[in-house]
UniProtKB/TrEMBL annotation:
Ranges where the Spindle assembly abnormal protein 6 N-terminal domain occurs: 27-158
Pfam families in the record: SAS-6_N (PF16531)
Extent of Polar residues compositional bias: 221-231
PANTHER family assigned: ASSEMBLY ABNORMAL PROTEIN 6, PUTATIVE-RELATED, SPINDLE ASSEMBLY ABNORMAL PROTEIN 6 N-TERMINAL DOMAIN-CONTAINING PROTEIN
Protein name: Spindle assembly abnormal protein 6 N-terminal domain-containing protein
Record's compositionally biased regions (Pro residues): 211-220
Region listing for Disordered, in residue ranges: 208-231
Top-level taxon in the UniProt lineage: Eukaryota
Organism: Gonium pectorale
Alphabetized InterPro entries for the sequence: SAS-6_N (IPR032396), SAS-6_N_sf (IPR038558)
């Protein structure tokens, strides 16, 4: 059985990820539960926000030593949600001094990964609260619930990505989904061909049986799918 051409196109497509331009390397990618809050004005929002799974990417740009750290936030439910947090060593020192961080620049990605993983493993103990401003600025606060009080562990400033970068990411994600669909369709065609050779009657049975969606109970054959007619 020959491999589908789509199987060869997919790895090449991944190399076109706009996150990887300028020599950036992906070191972390997971969906993390965030509490999303939107500020109306300059005052911080007082109401509890919606909980949503946000995809977090941590990327590093290296030369002889670590040069830049970038964190990208995106959402599977919104193609146009894209925020970026980027630090070089000089800008990290400002954050280090203002927040009295006890880690150096090289350890910063590891600290972020550890906190994000804690948000996944212990969502009621370590919270990730993302506050968005109308200006495009945003802040990610890692908060630890100590039962009797909340302690801020770390705060990261983000900026909404520009229109061109959002377009590049949306195009890339669309093409990835399209490539996956083509790959699955090619795989299904291969399976159909194999079943047709070995067991044609089984293939006819499979084609006549409507697909079942997860979580949806099968419909009774004695039950009509149309509404009853009342004269």
């Amino acid at each position: 059985m020959e491999d589908s051409p789509a199987a060869f196109d997919y790895p090449a497509l991944e190399e076109l990820d706009p996150s990887l331009v300028d020599g950036f390397k992906l070191v972390y990618e997971r969906e993390v539960p965030f509490e999303l809050r939107s500020a109306v004005g300059l005052d911080p929002p007082s109401e509890v926000g919606a909980l949503e799974a946000v995809k977090v990417k941590i990327l590093v740009q290296e030369g002889p030593q670590l040069k830049t750290i970038r964190v990208e936030l995106s959402s599977e439910s919104n193609l146009f949600f894209l925020y970026v947090h980027e630090l070089s060593e000089p800008s990290f020192k400002e954050v280090q001094e203002s927040q009295r961080l006890m880690v150096d620049f090289n350890d910063y990605p590891t600290v972020l990964m550890r906190m994000l993983n804690q948000c996944i493993r212990e969502p009621h103990t370590v919270l990730a609260i993302f506050i968005m401003q109308p200006t495009g600025e945003a802040r990610l606060d890692f908060i630890q619930n100590m039962e009797y009080k909340f302690v801020e562990l770390l705060s990261c400033r983000f900026l909404a990505a520009g229109e061109e970068l959002v377009r590049q990411h949306a195009t890339y994600r669309y093409n990835v989904v399209k490539a996956r669909l083509q790959l699955m369709q090619a795989r299904l065609a291969d399976i159909n061909a194999a079943v047709k050779v070995k067991n044609p009657s089984l293939l006819l049975q499979l084609q006549r049986t409507p697909p079942r969606l997860p979580g949806v109970p099968p419909q009774s054959p004695n039950r009509s799918s149309t509404k009853p007619f009342y004269p």
